[in-house]
From TrEMBL:
Natural source organism: Uncinula necator (Grape powdery mildew)
Cell compartments where the protein resides: Nucleus
Cleaved signal peptide residues: none
Organism placement in taxonomy: Eukaryota, Fungi, Dikarya, Ascomycota, Pezizomycotina
Keyword DNA damage: yes
Protein's UniProt name: MMS19 nucleotide excision repair protein
MMS19 N-terminal domain residues: 70-327
Keywords for this protein: DNA damage, DNA repair, Nucleus
Length: 1154
């Protein structure tokens, strides 16, 4: 085994670093071998620790090379770290030597070297079992000498000081009893403070602050020591650290927390802390909002931690400083922080536990009474000045506890109600009503907060407000009466403005809050309030703030008091709807706007989940509870529809009701989905939308009998419901709205894979005996859509029947092709046939479909492709969907242009669906079919242009192809489409190079390719486009595209492409500046003599591109081009459209600033 000496260690070159602590892993392999040799020699008894120390002293007591001194001490540290047992005498001798070295009474330079290693040796030696606690006194005393008049401590690197603080903290916590007994607390406190006198570094202070907190909290210190400690740390308040933003913020937060903990570590600090902060509050005008915030946060924390006696002693003095800030300051942040402190004091002084002494209970009462009385006096003496700020103070106090609320209400509410009778200014009345609202809001918050409010407190708080209930309701009712009078005067055209009415709007919020207080209002009072609110709603203008606030008030009352909604609000508003509408002499309906407006108000009031009534827990029938208002509203509308169906000429009225149902369902389902009630509802057996599903279908569709062509037997089939009046019929708009309702119900998140409303009302085993009951229309219509689509004679049925399949939620854990879901629906291996039937319906030229029906069927086909993967199904007549489409295209020349146009519309919709779902069976082939149709020489030129424009639909946002309908939109499709348009770009370049035989067709072809290409590029992110194509190729394409004719959408998109290229690749675009200016000014030049070929949107975009050119390349433009550009911009400044003129002014300014 190799032998080593101390000299071997010193020869090993190693640079000392102070940026990381010494640890076992920082040594080289050679160093580890030397350490192991020494440790082994000591453990084997060949040498002792004292002998090793004697050997090493030769090197650590030399002034020749201080680096070697530190290196030798590092060896001593490494050896001691690995020795488990040291004799007590040897250990004591080693500690004394190291302590003497730290004290350095001889002022030897070598003693000041390796201080960090010595400090770490202290910590290492203290962990050995034979360490004598008495030696801790020698260690701590020696460390304190570092801060003597020689100023050695502050000259040490930050990381060394950090280690010293850590070692001191360790000894003071581990050996506090011995140290206090030997040295005394005063000497220890003085030593700590001398070390930290000039400390500024955050890592060091993050050790010092917790140490001060510990000894302040755990040691029995004298007043003089505590005062010294307070002065030592309060000077750091508030914490400010410079440096990197994230690191600075983290350190600031940590240090603020530590410093605040120092403040509350001993009750002695309370008087010093509060007096210090009060002085800052009194001088608030000269401190920043940030410092003010930190002071208020610190005070709030202190009042929570100090004893109630200390807080009570200083509460009034704090109030005297804070009130001036709230009443006089113009800085909102200062006011909010002060209110937070006032509330924190009230919360801290509160004592609801039975064990509290009477004196402690009086602390809060005295504080609240003092503040309340002063607030009352200010309100009475000068309401115009003090009502608003004092109202905020009252709210902060009242919301702190029920006891505080009772005191505030008793002292504040009576003078407030009396003041209502004396003030005359509407602005003052508004402020007074706002204060009442804040008081009621505080009560509601207390009632809702069960953590601080028990049942007894709830009763006491309600009793406090009930004492003044009659006068309070009278005051609010008077405000509502004045509001009604103003609305009446506004309707008659008198000179009042809406602002006069807005002064009384706080009364509406107060009334809504009264409904939330249990047993506060009698049924009579509830009825009178609702009657007034309904009148205001009906009489007020639909667009003003009064109407909006009244609607919100009724909605809040309804959600918290469903019985009031069902018995009072809803019936009263429904009575405002006319029994029927009468057509005018031309057969047209009267203005439906008032009816639609009232229905819209009903929707906004009714379509919200109900909250808990009377603060009870959620009942077992939670779905009925949360759903109560909306179901009541829907049932009333359905009954209204039944009555209207019996009256002639009411289809438009009924359609308006269905539109209201649709809007209400959207609003209710969205709010229910975003709330926590969804899980409660979805676990129950009865779905809340079941009644809507059944009733809306029965009111739209019916079952009729039809003879089979072969067997002559009758077969039930779906038809549009016939109305009692033969001259009336349900129109496409009505059925379209019904279909949208069915879609929302089908895809609602309230459905679950187990409890799914579509599956519930779909029976794939229906037999004729089961279909004889006409009540089964809600089941048959879905069955017939899937199994007997040929029996649907009236195409309007599709407006309703296709939507359950569009919105149905797939079966849980289904595969990508939805095999389980298709089996459950009975369309496994049959989805392709359904798509074929729908396509043939669309292409039936002899029986043309109206646009709404055609779009519904196109959406249906998209769902079959994107959701149900119908491209993999084998068709009944052989082949698959792609084969069927290709065969239609091959035979299309035999049909009319209208047929061909509708065929390509089908193909575009299929293409969009296939790319959305990344259907590899369809994407490339259908894209090729569309690309082939772009050439006007082989297709009708009009059809080619329409196909080119339809490329925009492939990536456009769709109301059907999205996650709401459980379709995964694949991101890969964009990269594939960029690859697929390369051939189109090549075709365009080829046409540009050819000499045309037919110039018109040649130009049409070039336009078609340009339109198709930008139709794809417009919906793809810039970074993908730039990554896929050669930049020069893109520039040429973009500039050529700005000249595209007869398509302003494509022209605008190409201008946007030019703008993107300038923004993303300005260096490359610099050489094309002349061409860019030429193309853009061709667009912007719009005069009577030479009108532009671009619409106003394109002209605005073109001017914006010119601005970018000026900002990026303007300084390099020669003077003639600048002059020409100024002339073109002058023409743009006279454009007929304001947007173009405004953009041109901005562009001229950019040119001017050059």
């Amino acid at each position: 085994m190799a032998t080593y000496t101390i000299q071997d260690w010193l020869i090993e070159e190693k640079r000392l670093t102070f940026d990381k602590p010494t640890n076992r892993d920082c040594y080289s392999e050679h160093e580890k071998a030397i350490i192991a040799f020494v440790v082994g020699a000591i453990q084997d008894g060949k040498i002792t620790v004292n002998l090793f120390l004697q050997d090493i002293r030769v090197y650590i007591e030399s002034d020749l090379d201080l680096i070697k001194v530190s290196r030798a001490l590092t060896l001593l540290l490494a050896v001691c770290e690995r020795i488990k047992i040291i004799q007590e005498n040897d250990l004591h001798y080693l500690v004394d030597y190291l302590a003497e070295r730290i004290r350095n009474e001889t002022n030897s330079s070598y003693n000041n070297a390796g201080i960090r290693e010595v400090i770490l040796l202290f910590r290492t030696l203290s962990k050995i079992n034979s360490f004598n606690p008495e030696d801790a006194c020698s260690i701590i005393s020696s460390i304190f000498t570092l801060a003597d008049s020689r100023h050695r401590f502050m000259d040490l690197p930050d990381v060394v000081r950090q280690d010293i603080y850590a070692v001191v903290e360790n000894f003071l916590k581990e050996y506090s009893h011995v140290l206090i007994q030997s040295l005394g607390t005063s000497k220890i406190v003085d030593g700590i403070l001398e070390l930290a006198t000039f400390e500024k570094k955050a890592p060091c202070l993050l050790i010092v602050f917790p140490l001060i907190s510990h000894i302040s909290r755990s040691w029995n210190l004298g007043d003089s020591d505590l005062e010294k400690l307070f002065k030592s740390f309060i000077r750091y308040f508030p914490i400010k650290i410079s440096g990197l933003q994230n690191d600075s913020m983290r350190l600031s937060m940590e240090m603020s927390d530590c410093l605040t903990d120092c403040l509350v570590s001993n009750d002695f600090y309370a008087s010093h802390t509060f007096s210090n902060f009060i002085a800052s509050l009194d001088d608030h005008s000269s401190i920043s909002a940030t410092v003010m915030h930190e002071i208020c946060v610190a005070i709030s924390y202190c009042v929570k931690k100090y004893s109630k006696e200390k807080v009570a002693l200083w509460s009034i003095r704090l109030w005297n400083s804070l009130k001036l800030i709230i009443w006089e300051s113009q800085i909102e942040d200062h006011i909010e922080d002060s209110l937070l402190v006032i509330q924190s004091i009230a919360i801290s002084l509160g004592c609801n536990e039975p064990s509290c002494e009477k004196e402690q209970k009086n602390f809060l009462a005295n504080y609240i009474m003092e503040v309340s009385n002063e607030c009352r006096d200010q309100i009475v003496n000068s309401p115009q000045k003090y009502l608003t700020p004092t109202g905020r103070i009252i709210y902060s106090l009242a919301s702190s506890s029920t006891h505080a609320f009772k005191v505030v209400v008793t002292s504040i509410l009576p003078p407030l109600l009396a003041l209502w009778k004396t003030i005359t200014l509407a602005s003052e009345k508004k402020m007074l009503l706002s204060v009442i609202t804040l008081i009621l809001k505080a009560l509601i918050e207390l009632l809702d907060n069960k953590e601080i409010t028990n049942d007894i407190d709830t009763v006491e708080a309600i009793k406090a407000i009930s004492t003044f209930q009659e006068r309070l309701i009278e005051t609010l009712s008077n405000a509502v009466v004045e509001l009604k009078q103003i609305i009446q005067e506004l309707s008659t055209g008198k000179g009042l403005s809406i602002k006069n009415a807005s002064h009384f709007l706080p009364a509406l919020e107060s009334l809504a809050l009264l409904f939330r207080i249990p047993s506060c209002l009698t049924r009579v009072e509830q009825g009178m309030i609702v009657q007034d609110l309904n009148k205001i709603l009906v009489k007020s203008s639909k667009d003003d703030i009064i109407h909006r606030e009244t609607t919100t008030t009724l909605q809040k009352i309804s959600t918290y008091r469903p019985t009031v909604f069902a018995d009072m609000i809803l019936p009263s508003l429904l009575d405002e709807l006319p029994e029927s509408v009468i057509p005018d002499f031309d057969g047209e309906m009267v203005n439906m706007q008032p009816i639609a407006s009232l229905l819209n108000d009903l929707v906004n009031i009714s379509s919200h989940p109900c909250y808990r009534e009377l603060n009870t827990d959620v009942p077992e029938d939670a779905n009925i509870y949360w759903y109560r208002n909306f179901k009541c509203f829907v049932d009333h509308l359905f009954r209204k529809m039944d009555k209207l169906f019996l009256i002639k000429g009411q289809v438009s009225y009924v359609t308006a009701i269905v539109a209201a149902l649709l809007k209400g369902l959207k609003l209710f389902d969205r709010e229910l989905e975003s709330s926590h009630t969804v899980k409660t509802i979805s676990n129950l057996v009865i779905l809340p939308y079941e009644s809507i599903w059944i009733q809306i279908i029965r009111k739209s569709l019916s079952l009729n009998m039809k003879n089979k062509s072969i067997s002559k037997t009758e077969k039930r089939f779906l038809s549009i419901r016939e109305l009692p009046n033969k001259d009336d019929s349900l129109d496409a708009l009505f059925l379209y709205l019904v279909g949208k309702i069915i879609l929302l119900v089908s895809r609602s998140k309230l459905n679950t894979p187990i409890n799914n409303i579509v599956f519930r009302f779909y029976n794939q085993s229906l037999i004729e005996e089961n279909m004889k009951d006409a009540n089964q229309v809600e089941e048959l219509y879905l069955y017939q859509q899937i199994h007997e689509p040929d029996l649907i004679d009236n195409p309007l049925v599709y407006l309703v029947s296709v939507y359950p399949l569009i919105g149905v939620q797939p079966v849980k854990d289904d595969d990508r092709n939805l095999t389980k879901t298709k089996s459950r629906l009975g369309i496994n291996q049959n989805a392709g046939n359904l798509a074929v039937v729908a396509i043939l319906r669309i292409l039936d030229i002899e029986n043309l479909l109206i646009p709404r029906v055609r779009v519904a069927l196109l959406h249906y086909i998209q769902i079959l492709v994107a959701k149900f993967r119908c491209s993999i199904d084998e068709l009944q007549d052989g082949g698959n969907l792609l084969y069927f489409i290709e065969s239609l295209v091959k035979k299309s020349h035999e049909n009319s242009p209208q047929y061909v146009m509708q065929l390509y519309q089908v193909i575009v919709y299929i293409a969009a669906a296939s790319f959305t779902s990344y259907d590899t069976n369809l994407m490339r082939p259908v894209f090729r079919l569309l690309s082939d149709a772009l050439d006007p020489e082989t297709h009708d030129s009009n059809i080619s242009t329409l196909v080119a424009q339809s490329f925009r639909l492939i990536l456009a946002k769709s109301e059907i192809l999205n996650e709401k309908n459980y379709i995964q939109v694949r991101a890969l499709r964009k990269g594939l489409l960029l690859d697929l348009i390369r051939p189109l770009m090549a075709q365009y370049r080829r046409h540009c190079e050819l000499i045309p035989q037919n110039p018109n067709l040649h130009q049409n072809a070039k336009n078609n390719y340009l339109i198709a290409i930008i139709g794809i590029l417009r919906n793809i992110e810039a970074y993908l486009v730039l990554d896929k194509f050669d930049l020069e190729e893109l520039v040429i394409l973009a500039l050529e595209g700005t000249n595209v004719s007869d398509d302003v959408i494509a022209k605008a998109e190409y201008i946007k492409l030019v703008r993107m290229l300038i923004s993303e690749r300005p260096k490359h675009m610099e050489k094309h500046v002349d061409k860019i200016i030429e193309r853009m000014t061709e667009r912007t030049h719009n005069t009577l003599e030479t009108p532009s070929d671009a619409n106003f949107e394109c002209r605005i975009l073109a001017v914006d591109v010119l601005r970018l050119v000026i900002e990026n390349f303007g300084s390099d433009l020669p003077l003639p081009k600048r002059v020409k550009l100024i002339g073109e911009l002058a023409i743009a400044k006279d454009d007929c459209h304001a947007g173009v003129r405004q953009a041109a002014v901005q562009c001229m300014l950019a040119l001017f600033y050059l």
